[in-house]
Design goal:
The protein is α/β, with parallel strands linked by helices and 164 residues long. The protein is built from 5 helices and 8 strands.
Length: 164
């Protein structure tokens, strides 16, 4: 199987890319690094101190005026955060920015907070479960490949891998 290094970037279609870029900066801590105008759209590229990259794009002739996760396509974007204490810091930040949110929601995989950007795109903050918690949720219907994949991502790289 060819390898993937990770997600390169996420790009959102929005009604106003300047407003969206300001929101991603003010609320989520991204920095705008590029702006461009093309034949039928304009975009803003932003990066986060973690290395994650987001782009927001405004089309000249959009098919709709608001995001709806019930349509085929993107449902939501979820950001991993370290733990429940960090989640509480985020709630304080969101409150301070005037961003409406769900509060902490408990799920079988762990706690999350849901909120929306100015174009109604659902954004989540999520505390990932430990590999042991994920393994406990797997049932007999899950494939051996799925179980192996969880085991592989939960193991730290060996010293042998660093030497190659």
């Amino acid at each position: 199987m060819p390898e993937l290094k990770g997600i390169s970037h996420v790009e959102f279609s929005v009604t106003d890319c300047d407003r969206a870029a300001a929101w991603w900066h003010d609320v989520m801590g991204f920095t705008q690094v590029h702006r461009a105008r093309h034949d039928s759209f304009e975009n803003r590229d932003l990066v986060h101190p973690t290395g994650m990259s987001i782009a927001v794009k405004t089309h000249d002739a959009p098919l709709s005026r608001s995001f709806d996760e019930r349509c085929i396509g993107l449902d939501h974007i979820s950001f991993e955060i370290a733990d429940r204490d960090e989640m509480l810091r985020w709630l304080t930040h969101l409150d301070g920015m005037g961003v409406a949110h769900s509060g902490v929601k408990e799920t079988v995989l762990g706690p999350l907070v849901v909120f929306r950007d100015p174009d109604n795109i659902q954004v989540e903050l999520f505390v990932h479960p430990s590999p042991e918690q994920v393994m406990a949720l797997l049932n007999d219907a899950d494939s051996p490949e799925a179980q192996q994949a969880v085991r592989e991502i939960s193991q730290p790289p060996s010293d042998d891998a660093e030497d190659s």
